[in-house]
Amino acid sequence: MIFEVVTSIAVAGLAGYSFLKTKGTGTSDADKIQTIFTNADLSIRKGGKTETIRLQRKRKFEGGTEYIYQLPLGLSSKEVIEKKHVLEDGLNVRSNVFEFRFSDLKSLKFDKSIVRQIRGLLKSKRKKKEIDIEFDGMLRIKIYNESMPNLVEWNESLLKPGTWSIPIGYTRNGEIINHDFDKSKHLIVAGATGYGKSVILKLIVTSLICQQPENVELSLIDLKGGSAFHRFKDCMQTKYYSRDPKTAEKVLIEIQKDMNNSFLGVVDNGFEDVKEAGIKKRHFIIIDESADLSDYKNAMDIVTDIARRGRSAGYYLIFCTQYPTAEVIPSQTKRNVIARLCYVVDTDTASRVVLDEGGAEQLPDIPGRGIYKNGPR
Ligand SMILES: Nc1ncnc2c1ncn2[C@@H]1O[C@H](COP(=O)(O)OP(=O)(O)O)[C@@H](O)[C@H]1O
Ligand SMILES: [Mg+2]
Question: Which of 66, 326, 353, 367 is found 20 to 30 A from 161 (Cα to Cα)?
Answer without folding.
Answer: 367
